[in-house]
Structure formats: structure tokens, C-alpha cells
Amino acid sequence: MDSKMSMEKETNGNGNSFLNKHACACVLAATIISAIFGYITGVMAGALLFIKEELEITDMQVQLLAGILNICALPACMVAGRTSDYIGRRYTIILSAIIFFLGSILMGYGSNFPILMIGRCIAGFGVGFALIITPVYSAEISSPSYRGFLTSLPDVSINTGFLFGYVSNYFLGKLSLRLGWRIMLAIPAIPSLGLIILMLKLVESPRWLVLQGRLDDARKVLLLISNSKEEAEQRLKEIKAAVGIDENCMQSIVHVPQKTRNGGGALKEMFHKPSPHVYKILFAAIGVHVFQQICGIEGILLYSPRVFERVGITEKSTLLLATVGIGISQTLFTLLSSLLLDRIGRRTLLLFSSGGVVVTWLGLSISSAIVESSKVGEEPLWAIVFIVVVMYILVAFVAIGIGPVTWVYSSEIFPLRLRAQGLGVCVAVNRVMNVAVVTSFISIYKTITLGGTFFMLVGINALAWWFYYSFLPETKGRSLEDMEAIFGKESKSEVQMKQQCIV
Fold first, then answer.
1. What is the 3-state secondary structure (H, E, C) of 131-163?
2. pTM for the full predicted model
3. C-alpha distances in angstroms, 329 versus 156, 160, 305, 391, 402?
4. What is the SS3 assignment for 190-239?
5. What is the DSSP track for 8-68?
6. Distance, CA of 92 to CA of 109 (rounded, Å)
7. Per-residue model confidence as pLDDT tens digits over 84-101
């Protein structure tokens, strides 16, 4: 009850309902790492055409090169959460930027396929760190009234990176075969270096500081990222209570058990006889990540030139230009999603998004079957145009809900003691499913045709809609410290009332 009252006060009164500029600046800077990840992923869609031509690699090697990024992200996912609990959210972002810098330099060198694979593997470790730490940092910096917007910015940034990757494909693809794709892959080294310098000047997560017992440092940060002293003190009280520190404690530094400071026992709490509310949180968080990947969008984003080629668009420049349209659609609708998250809620956007995805996959499966049944060179022009347009609409439906909401929802529902490592588990699952999709997409559509593949995805996304409807409570406007109660944990006042009734 107290947390609800504090939330209402924050969002409705005392001038606290406007976006804090310092918090926004911190999140925008941190999301540079997400843009780098998006660029590295998106640019490979077109770069693969040139790499395949110059290095003369097979389709199996193409799928391996595409999928190795996420294979190598897996071990990074498993250690990134614990690393951020040890060294802090800010320094983990810096570590991720250093890894991206090294991977980009090596990929840009790319003298042969093994060197390219090594560079891609190193970049994959950066992906594992980036996918965990940016949402966690963004969620912990944000206030409840704007957390949906700020926590969705990493996904906006990822999709902006995707778009720049596609644009880079189109323009740099006009350079010589040997030079063009190497410059495409080396470009992320520049923003990586800039981010390392920038993050040294920004603040640490106040929630991590409280976990370390550094209450005075946390208070200073909260005064910067809150709209009033009262709001900062209220947020500090809630964070202290969540960590197990007396809400009225006024010491600058307090002792917090090492196990709590470093996230020890988090995995055991989640997987060894978890409490009912922790089980529900874990089930919901893992579920949204599974369905985000198996909705099929990753295959479209990475292999869009191949898909367009399959339905009759064969000129390389036209292929890359059509791919740019996908990037524009994705970026615009992800930005729209970030503006709607705190207005209409996470659950509503997921239901709308997944419903639209079911319809568009159905349209694509029918039109693709028509094109594939036609003779080569005699494909109906209307069907080709329809496929391109509906593919843009499909990307828009994913970008307005399934894409960004997955990261917002999973980064905010875990309690503080489990957040970094819980999201690490989710991202590991996300990357496993991504690898499965990326490394099998070409093989599947060669086996059951594009139309058959798209029809299979209709059923998968219908199942996703049912999952979102059945298992995800709304979290809009609630503080991070309220999440356990949303998923069924009794509050202190409820426990006290039950004890009084028993007495």
C-alpha cells in the first residue's frame, strides 16, 4: 500500500511527472553500446553477400558466420550479470565497449575466413555483456513514471544501429569488393572508443551503490536523477528496504553481507525450489525472450537480401535498398513503442503486436507460396510488391511491441538481488534461440519452402499471443521494488494483518 502511494505521488504530484534530463542523458549514453550491437548485427546482412563472393564460402559457412556472434554471446551472458554485481553497471558497460572495439578492428582486418570468425567471436562476447547491462542500468537509473520510455531506448538504439548497418551496406557496397565490406565491419571501433571515454564521466546505478552499502553515494546520484529531494529520499528508502537496510538509516556507509553485494546465491534462489512469486517472474521473463526470438523476425532481419532474392528481386543494389526499408520501418516503430509504453502499458502492446504478427505471417505465407509456384522470371509483380510491403508491416508490428517490450519487461520485473543475473539467464536463453533461428533459417526454407516456413511461424506467434495474455501482469507505472508484489508476494502490511488475525 505504501509503495502504491509513493508511486502515485511521484507520477501525479509535486512537479515530479516530467522527464529528468540527467537520467535521460545517462541512459542515452549507455545505449550507444546497444547501437553498436545493432550495427554489428545489421551490417552483416549485406556484408555476407560480399564476403561470400570474395572469400568463396559455402551457405553453411555463411550461417555459421551469422550465428557465431550469438554462440559466443552465451558464455558472456552467463558471467555479465555477476560481473556487473562485482564491478558495477558503469564499468561493465566500459568493458563491453572495449570488447567491441577489439572485435571490430579484427573483423575490419578480415584477411581470411578464420580471422573473420575470430573477430566475430570477440564481438559476440561484447554482445553478451551489452544485452544485459544496458537494460539493467537503464531500469535502475529511471523513475517509475518514465521507466518504460527510458528502458526501451536501448532497443530503439539497437534498431537505429540496424538501420545504419543497412545504410552502410548500400553505400559502402559501391566501393571495391575488397575494401567495402571491411570498412563496414570496422566502423563500430569509433563509437566504442568514444563510449569508453563518455562512461567515465557518468554516474553509477544508485541501486548497485546501495547494494555495496554506499548510501551517501547513492543519495547523491538519486538527487541528480530525481526531480526533487523528496522523490530522491523516497526512492532511496524503497531501495534500502529492498536490500534489507533499515529505511531510516542515515549512515553514509553501512555493512552489507558480501553474498548480497556480489549477487551470491541468486541462481540458487531462482532455480533451487524458488518461491512461487520468483518462479512466476522467471517463467514470465524467460517466456518473453523465447517468443521474441522464435517469432521469426531475426531470420528476416539477417537474411532479408536472401529472402528478397528468393521471391524474384535479383539486382544486388535493389536488394540492399529494399533492406534499408526494413531498417527504417523497424526504427520508426520502435521509437513509437517507446512513446507508448508508459501510456498504454507493456501487456497491451505485446498483445497488439503479436496479433498483428500472426496476420502478417499468414499474408506472407500465402503470397510466398504463389511466387514460389511460378516459373523463374514469371513471378507476378503484384505478389512481389505485396511481399515487400507486408514484410515492412511485419517488422513494424514486431518493433512496436515484441521487440522493445521484451527487454523493458524482463529488466524491470526481477527483484534487485536477482536482477542482473536473472536477466543474464534470460539473455542466455534469448541467444540460444537466436542461434537456433539464424543457423537454421536458410536450411528450413530450402526444405519446406518460404511459404511453408512462414505458415509455421503463424502457429508459433498465435501461441505467443496466448502466453502474453495468460501469464504477464501489467507493470506500467509501478516501482521496481513493487514487482514481487505484482507477481504474488505478500507485502509486510499483509503479513502483519494475517498475524493479527491468527492472534
1. HHHHHHHHHHHCCHHHHHHHHHHHHHHHHHHHH
2. 0.74
3. 12, 10, 16, 10, 14
4. HHHHHHHHHHCCCCCCHHHHHHCCEHHHHHHHHHHHCCCHHHHHHHHHHH
5. HHHHHSTTTTSPPHHHHHHHHHHTHHHHHHHHHHHHHHHHHHHHHHHH---HHHHHHHHHH
6. 26
7. 888 999 999 999 999 999
